[in-house]
Amino acid sequence: MFARWGRFIYRWRWATLVVSIILLGVSVYGLMSGGTLGTGNSTSGALEAERAATLINNQLSTDKSGGSNFLLIFSSPDRLATDPVFRTELENALKPIQRDPRVTDIISPYTVDAATARAFISKDGHKALVRVDIKSEGEQARADYTALRAAVHPSGLSVVGTGGVPINRDFSATLESDLSRAETVTLPLTLILLLIIFGTVVAAGLPLGIGIVTIAGGLAGTFLLSRVTDVSQYALNIVTLIGLAVAIDYSLFIVTRFRDELAEGKSRPDALATTMATAGRAITFSGLAVAVGLSAMLFYQGTFLASLGAAGAIVVAVAVFYGLTFLPALLAILGPNVNRLSLPIVGRRPKSGRGAWHRMATWVMRRPVVVLVPTLGLLVLAGTPFLHLRLANASIDQLPPRLESRQGFDTLIKSFPGQDQTNFNVVVNYTQGSPTSAQRVLDQADLSRRMATIPGVLRIDSPQVGAHIVLLNVVSNQPTSSDGARSILRAIRAESIGNGGQLLVSGDTAFDVDIIDYIIDTTPLAFGFVVLVTYLVLFLLTGSLVLPLKAVVLNLLSIAASFGALVWIFQDGHLSQQLGFTAQSIDPSVPVILFAIVFGMSMDYEVLLISRIQEEYLRTGDNRHAIAEGLERSGRLITGAAAIMVAVFLAFGLAEVVLIKSIGIGLAIAVALDATIVRVLIVPAVMRLLGHYNWWAPAPLRALRRRAGLSRFSHESVEKVA
């Protein structure tokens, strides 16, 4: 089937090229049209904290007009905020925005009563807090903040801005700069690596070109997706990261095989047919494996992970499409000219098949147990830090300390009274009757007394009453994501109330815990689906029940090792100074994203290596020869492809947003381990020990696969080695 496709592409190469260029133009148009990206989170009501927040907003919220606000912190090293000079300088600084039509209200220590003013003056008395309410929301609010903040210039005071609007603005701006920096670093570095791998300018330029057009198509698809559902602002970084890596990898496989076939004296049509039947088939199955891996994120509906999974699947589909159409059409037109503009950088593989990779495979197969014990031990040891993983939702610590909004937030929490406290919004919901009946009021008072005795609780504010709810605000001095705050939350949720009341808890800690629990509860189903479907895809590729099991187990080992490195670096804080981040708990989305991407992408090398080994095994029936020859023919390509992937991922490791930085570095570690220790050492050793059992499958399954047209070889060849 793939060979026929290769001949079809050759026959209609110019038409295929024109269609591909038209689609590229459509992608560029979609890219320029853009779209609106948000949090990627949707209100599904699956979380208790979410249901409680909805009840509060519906029954107790008095502000229905919308809008948003930001905070300004004015400070002086030598004057107190109660000093008349301090007040005059602050009020003069606010005059340019006081009558601005975008501003609805300005609240400062000098516009409220004395009791309230204490919360607007810092503990040391040298700082004053100002809240500015504005009409707009979302992107418009971020633009309005930029303009309003630029108009505030105190003469004798320093000022920093923080709050939800500037923090969101800095997240968006930092993600954009991270993406730009990664592209600036990745593209020239990738070109250098491709020149080293291919040794010719034309061959090296093809994968890079396909990578660029794939990113254009993937980003256009993401913006199109954002028109029908909420897509996370992280999606652009993830799409670029995945798209560039897989597109270059797939192109690398295609171009290398085409050059090999031409070097053996085949005509262009025959070379392209064989290339599609081998490398084209491999990237199709690899693309399916990557898409299956990314589909794990679709199980987390209601979180931003679902939009990342959908956007990632789009860019992988684009990469496979261009790898099977645009690239082979270019190769059909170029023919031997693909080797033009050669550079004397690398030597050719020895024709005898006895190169370094052949010698390495032979060395490993002579002593498989000696190789397996330390390498498997190393992967297990690398994964041990994952045993003390601590999860917490991403906070402002994700931003670099150099940003004003981060500096302002840190000052707010450290310097102003009450800002370091955590609120638990305890909602007592009555579906029938009034919440203010005598017995229910007594129940609520008794509940308040019990909650006040929980260790870490400072006070319980006066209740607020709605149509069917009563809100009890429990205040603690424990940080939002701390173990102490989580213990208080568990204690509150363990309480109950009678007379038809339902107790629900919202607040930052409640959302933190509920999201983590949701992700943990969903993970077995998501991961199990990916493992089973990947197993099926690999069986369809190889016709073996043993090799897919080996691939899944080794994938899990390399993923575990990368998870361990992630905890060691980002949670334990090793290399934090060198990499420029604040050590913190791991966001629960990061292990999910790493698993989804790594599990799929590691199949690139599995598919390439096993396909080459299978060709030799079905031709000769000699297991040891097939392993050595397969590694010799694909080892250099796997190493080169892995080097490019690692370069792409490390470029994203330069990001300032910690979530993107941790994903980039985690992926780089996983790919490096997978392409070296796993593919070069562990796979040959395991396949040597398994021998002919590598290719075992029951006869009915082999027959079913042949009837589906998925076997590349004759019935006699398959039966001979099975």
Plain-language structure description:
Residues 349-353 and 712-722 have low confidence and may be disordered. The protein is built from 25 helices and nine strands. The longest helix has 35 residues, at 164-198. It is elongated. Helix 2 (13-33) crosses helix 12 (326-334), helix 8 (201-226) packs antiparallel against helix 11 and helix 21 (589-620) packs antiparallel against helix 22. The protein is an alpha+beta fold. Among the domains are: 67-168, Multidrug efflux transporter AcrB pore domain (Alpha-Beta Plaits, 2-Layer Sandwich), CATH 3.30.70.1430; 409-511, Alpha-Beta Plaits, CATH 3.30.70. The strands form two sheets. Strands 5, 6, 7, 8 and 9 form a five-stranded antiparallel β-sheet that branches. Strands 2-3-1-4 form a four-stranded antiparallel β-sheet. The protein has helices spanning 2-11, 13-33, 48-60, 84-98, 114-117, 138-150, 164-198, 201-226, 235-263, 268-294, 304-324, 326-334, 356-366, 368-383, 404-415, 438-452, 483-493, 508-542, 546-571, 576-579, 589-620, 623-653, 658-690, 699-707, 715-721, and strands spanning 68-75, 103-107, 127-134, 158-162, 422-430, 457-460, 464-465, 469-476, 501-506.
